[in-house]
Amino acid sequence: MEAMPPPATLVSPTPGEVFALIRDRRATTRGELGRLTGLSRTAVTARVAALEAGGLVIERDQASTGGRPAAQLMFNVDAGVVFSAAIGRSRTQLAVCNLDGTILASTDIDQEPGIAPDDLLPDLVKRLDMLLDESARRDAHIFGVGLSLPGTVDQRTGASLDSPNMSGWDGVPLAPYFTSLTDAPVVIDNDANAIAVAERRGGYGEYDDMLVVKASTGLAAGIIMGGQLQRGAVQAAGEFGHSKTAAAAGVHCRCGDTGCLEAIAGGWALVRALQRDGRAVNHLRDVVALAHTGDPEARRMIRESGRHIGEVLAAAVNLLNPAVLVIAGDMVGAYDLFVAGLRETLYGNATALATRTLQIVPSIHRERSSMVGCATNVLDRVLSPDAVDAAMYGD
């Protein structure tokens, strides 16, 4: 985006704030911008011209239905791309996305559990670079890189803070691995938080209070209350997978402790149990596929996982009173089975008042939720009003 000299006095709202109205479709014409912002026609024209020069906004004539129609202002989602990398314990999902988070090209990397950053990230960067060609966007401006990891994340240092399931990652800054690919910002977050932001922006935006449960190899939740993502005092909000539950008493968890919910309800625990039974499964996705063939044991275990999770989540529903509970992660592939069990214990243990209007719904983005979440996180950072203004005025 070409820098322009800052004006002597920048009257609010700024071009970045005007862009936010257009990006969120709250204003689609110059007249609507004027009414929403109180800006004069001349001021609106100046800000729209700056956004058009930066490539972020395009203006198109609408089809006439009589009289002269107002030209439509549109967010130019093809002004560039962002990279998305959702890193898991045994699988990493990669994507190139346009500026509204639509996936243009994607791929998966299946990796050995416990792989170190030095072994995974160089290959990850090469795969992202190859995806530029697959997406036919080799020459596109790269706005940023969105990353997600299981466990708590320190956004200040750009590193895992505490992930018992990702040995060797804690405290390792990840942005330097991407310098050969781009000098754009690298935004890192917890995987469940990223999914929660994507689900709210992607279609559940009418809910200011929601829990987004990632039920996959591990268990975690993204919490949005009052329209704001809640991270907690040490970035550990939503890490309910290692909550103790009586049903898991004495059962060893992969975190090294015993009695954790994950030890009986996490995807890895289901895989472990079926492997001991002689089944050829390596991931929760295999368990879900087995359930779809009608396998009674796989179906029983998925429903039982829902029961255990619902029992623990009942306390969260009582405390937080969300309007909606979104189910995401690989378990969404067996949504009906899983939720049948979850409803049974959630409604049986939560208060009638807290569940009176509670809705339980599947992820909008399904198996792509992690990739879209990573893209959404970085887009909300690099396309914020402050970031747009800084790019325009060379700050």
UniProtKB/TrEMBL annotation:
The family database entries (PANTHER family) matched by this protein are listed as: GLUCOKINASE, ROK (REPRESSOR, ORF, KINASE) FAMILY
Q: Which InterPro entries match?
A: ATPase_NBD, ROK, Tscrpt_reg_HTH_AsnC-type_CS, WH-like_DNA-bd_sf, WH_DNA-bd_sf
The organism is Mycolicibacterium smegmatis (strain ATCC 700084 / mc(2)155) (Mycobacterium smegmatis)
Family affiliation: Belongs to the ROK (NagC/XylR) family.
Q: What is this protein called?
A: NagC regulator
The protein's superkingdom reads: Bacteria
Q: What Gene3D superfamilies does the database record attribute to this sequence? A: 3.30.420.40, Winged helix-like DNA-binding domain superfamily/Winged helix DNA-binding domain
